């Protein structure tokens, strides 16, 4: 049995090509690496330490990081991101290069799932396995897929509220409210989401940029997931209001050998504790088996 040296979980700031990216590594040093990619406007905080430690299970080095404009990573002025989707897709590779990691397991949620697809197609030699959570095909023609729910679509049509970004309590309230339309059928887990939002707001450089810039940045290069040739697991909720279940079914259908696991009772979110009893064994089977 392979043994690994234990590591700490301190946040590191990597300066890469003029950009600062905040990362955290948990688990044994030298173990196979698993990189977590959060969704749009999400910092690493939504991948909680408890989830990371259970996911690593003493056998994986789990790495989470802040996208640009989230957490402690570099921030652009609100509404004026100085990067494109291709830059966001290159950042995980920059992180792996800086850490001396040739290949990693990738777990991406929503926008992070699109980034993971991009890497798996354009840099497949860097990917040991792929897990796509609540996401959609990043390109290609895979038929007409259902739109977001009315509640989610309304968030794009309504004018943005006036926010005093210096008022911490108001910003936390706003961050919680943003998550409401994306919740599952049981509604928002308010105490949990508020705790995560509070942590994110208090450690972020610029929440105005965080909540805005990913959605106005130039789009990245589209890739066809049908070209993915790495072991792939698709985790998708039957009640995702952003990307309804057919989006996950399309991914599982077009990626050769992909396996779909349907989740119940959750929305468009990083898997919450209520489904860890399903998600973690599936991830361990997929990642450790790969």
TrEMBL record:
Pfam short name (any one): Abhydrolase_1
Transmembrane segments: none
Annotated ranges, domain AB hydrolase-1: 32-150
Disordered as annotated region, ranges: 68-88
UniProt protein name: AB hydrolase-1 domain-containing protein
The species this protein was found in: Cryptosporangium minutisporangium
């Amino acid at each position: 049995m392979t043994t690994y040296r234990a590591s700490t979980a301190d946040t590191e700031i990597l300066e890469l090509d003029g950009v600062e990216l905040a990362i955290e590594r948990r688990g044994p040093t030298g173990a196979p690496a698993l990189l977590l990619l959060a969704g749009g406007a999400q910092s690493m905080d939504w991948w909680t330490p408890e989830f990371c430690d259970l996911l690593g299970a003493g056998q994986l080095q789990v790495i989470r990081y802040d996208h640009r404009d989230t957490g402690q990573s570099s921030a652009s002025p609100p509404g004026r991101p100085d990067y494109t989707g291709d830059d966001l897709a290159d950042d995980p590779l920059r992180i792996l290069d800086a850490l001396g990691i040739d290949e990693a397991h990738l777990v991406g949620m929503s926008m992070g799932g699109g980034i993971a697809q991009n890497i798996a197609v354009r840099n497949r030699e860097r990917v040991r396995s792929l897990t796509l959570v609540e996401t959609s095909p990043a390109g290609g023609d895979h038929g007409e897929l259902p739109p977001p729910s009315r509640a989610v679509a309304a968030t794009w049509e309504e004018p943005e509220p006036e926010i005093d970004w210096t008022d911490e309590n108001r910003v936390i309230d706003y961050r919680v409210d943003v998550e409401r339309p994306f919740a599952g059928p049981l509604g928002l887990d308010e105490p949990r989401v508020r705790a995560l939002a509070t942590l994110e707001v208090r450690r972020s450089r610029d929440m105005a940029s965080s909540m805005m810039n990913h959605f106005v940045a130039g789009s990245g290069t589209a890739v066809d997931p049908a070209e993915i040739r790495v072991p792939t697991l698709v985790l998708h909720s039957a009640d995702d209001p952003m990307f309804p279940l057919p989006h996950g079914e399309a991914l599982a259908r077009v990626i050769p050998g992909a396996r779909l696991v349907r989740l119940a009772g959750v929305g468009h979110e990083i898997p919450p504790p209520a489904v860890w009893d399903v998600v973690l064994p599936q991830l361990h089977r997929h990642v450790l088996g790969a």
